[in-house]
Amino acid sequence: EKTYIAYQASTVDNDIDHSWYLALTTSGQIELSVQGKKLDTNLTNVATVLTSSSTIPRDNESPTMICWTLDNEIPGGNVKLFINGILEASTGLLRTNSTSNSTGQWV
Protein backbone atom coordinates (compact mmCIF):
# COMPACT_ATOMS: atom_id res chain seq x y z
CA GLU A 1 0.00 0.00 0.00
CA LYS A 2 1.20 3.51 -0.80
CA THR A 3 1.90 6.10 1.86
CA TYR A 4 0.71 9.47 0.60
CA ILE A 5 3.11 12.34 1.27
CA ALA A 6 1.18 15.20 -0.37
CA TYR A 7 -2.07 15.36 -2.32
CA GLN A 8 -4.22 17.94 -4.06
CA ALA A 9 -7.83 17.04 -4.74
CA SER A 10 -9.34 18.07 -8.04
CA THR A 11 -11.87 20.85 -8.34
CA VAL A 12 -12.58 20.34 -12.05
CA ASP A 13 -16.20 19.26 -12.64
CA ASN A 14 -15.91 16.69 -9.81
CA ASP A 15 -14.94 14.00 -12.35
CA ILE A 16 -11.17 13.83 -11.75
CA ASP A 17 -9.87 11.95 -8.72
CA HIS A 18 -6.89 14.21 -8.01
CA SER A 19 -4.86 17.00 -9.52
CA TRP A 20 -1.62 15.46 -8.24
CA TYR A 21 -0.16 13.32 -5.49
CA LEU A 22 3.23 12.26 -4.13
CA ALA A 23 3.43 8.84 -2.49
CA LEU A 24 6.00 6.47 -1.05
CA THR A 25 5.59 2.98 -2.52
CA THR A 26 6.07 -0.22 -0.54
CA SER A 27 9.42 -0.67 -2.31
CA GLY A 28 10.61 2.73 -1.02
CA GLN A 29 10.34 4.66 -4.28
CA ILE A 30 8.61 8.00 -4.75
CA GLU A 31 5.59 8.02 -7.06
CA LEU A 32 4.23 11.21 -8.59
CA SER A 33 0.89 11.25 -10.37
CA VAL A 34 -0.35 14.34 -12.23
CA GLN A 35 -3.86 14.24 -13.66
CA GLY A 36 -5.77 16.69 -15.81
CA LYS A 37 -8.95 16.83 -17.82
CA LYS A 38 -8.43 16.73 -21.58
CA LEU A 39 -10.63 18.78 -23.87
CA ASP A 40 -11.42 15.82 -26.14
CA THR A 41 -13.36 12.89 -24.70
CA ASN A 42 -10.82 10.27 -25.79
CA LEU A 43 -8.24 11.47 -23.26
CA THR A 44 -10.37 12.40 -20.24
CA ASN A 45 -8.83 11.87 -16.79
CA VAL A 46 -5.41 10.90 -18.13
CA ALA A 47 -2.88 10.52 -15.31
CA THR A 48 0.85 10.74 -15.85
CA VAL A 49 2.73 8.67 -13.28
CA LEU A 50 6.46 8.99 -12.62
CA THR A 51 8.40 6.70 -10.27
CA SER A 52 11.83 7.45 -8.86
CA SER A 53 14.66 5.11 -9.74
CA SER A 54 16.21 5.38 -6.28
CA THR A 55 14.70 4.43 -2.94
CA ILE A 56 14.21 6.65 0.07
CA PRO A 57 16.04 5.70 3.31
CA ARG A 58 13.68 4.78 6.13
CA ASP A 59 16.08 5.28 9.01
CA ASN A 60 14.14 8.18 10.58
CA GLU A 61 17.30 10.29 10.39
CA SER A 62 18.17 10.99 6.75
CA PRO A 63 16.44 14.08 5.33
CA THR A 64 15.15 13.76 1.78
CA MET A 65 14.22 16.57 -0.61
CA ILE A 66 11.43 15.78 -3.07
CA CYS A 67 10.57 18.27 -5.79
CA TRP A 68 8.51 18.08 -8.96
CA THR A 69 7.86 20.53 -11.76
CA LEU A 70 5.17 20.92 -14.40
CA ASP A 71 5.56 23.14 -17.46
CA ASN A 72 2.65 22.75 -19.86
CA GLU A 73 4.14 25.16 -22.38
CA ILE A 74 6.99 22.94 -23.58
CA PRO A 75 6.48 20.02 -25.99
CA GLY A 76 8.36 17.36 -24.02
CA GLY A 77 9.77 16.55 -20.60
CA ASN A 78 7.19 18.83 -19.03
CA VAL A 79 6.74 16.85 -15.78
CA LYS A 80 9.93 16.16 -13.82
CA LEU A 81 10.59 14.44 -10.49
CA PHE A 82 13.71 15.30 -8.46
CA ILE A 83 15.04 13.54 -5.34
CA ASN A 84 17.77 15.35 -3.40
CA GLY A 85 18.31 17.67 -6.39
CA ILE A 86 18.82 14.84 -8.90
CA LEU A 87 16.44 14.27 -11.80
CA GLU A 88 14.86 10.86 -11.18
CA ALA A 89 12.15 10.72 -13.86
CA SER A 90 10.54 12.86 -16.56
CA THR A 91 7.81 12.60 -19.16
CA GLY A 92 7.93 12.41 -22.92
CA LEU A 93 6.00 14.52 -25.40
CA LEU A 94 2.76 16.37 -24.72
CA ARG A 95 -0.34 14.47 -25.80
CA THR A 96 -1.83 17.49 -27.54
CA ASN A 97 -0.78 20.89 -28.79
CA SER A 98 -2.42 23.99 -27.43
CA THR A 99 -2.17 27.74 -27.49
CA SER A 100 -3.68 28.18 -24.02
CA ASN A 101 -2.12 27.74 -20.59
CA SER A 102 -4.47 25.42 -18.69
CA THR A 103 -4.49 22.09 -16.87
CA GLY A 104 -6.16 20.58 -19.95
CA GLN A 105 -2.73 20.40 -21.60
CA TRP A 106 -1.05 18.11 -19.09
CA VAL A 107 0.60 14.98 -20.40
What topology emerges from the helices and strands here?
Elements: E1 3-9, E2 18-24, E3 30-36, E4 46-51, E5 66-70, E6 79-83, E7 86-90
Antiparallel strand pairs: 1-2, 2-3, 3-4, 5-6, 6-7
Task: Give your account of this protein's structure.
With 107 residues, the chain is mainly β. The protein has strands spanning 3-9, 18-24, 30-36, 46-51, 66-70, 79-83, 86-90. The strands form 2 sheets. It has a 4-stranded antiparallel β-sheet with strand order 1-2-3-4, with no helix packed on it. The chain starts with a strand and ends in a 17-residue tail after the last strand.
Largest sheet: 4 strands, antiparallel
Order of helices and strands: EEEEEEE
Bulk shape: globular
Tell me the strand order in the biggest sheet.
1-2-3-4
Helix content: under 10%
Structural class: mainly beta
Strand content: 35-45%
Overall pLDDT: 77
The tally of beta strands, per DSSP, is 7
Q: For the CA atoms, what is the radius of gyration?
A: 15 Å
Show unreliable segments: 97-107
With helices defined by DSSP (H or I, 4 residues minimum), what is the helix count? 0
Distance between the termini: 25 Å
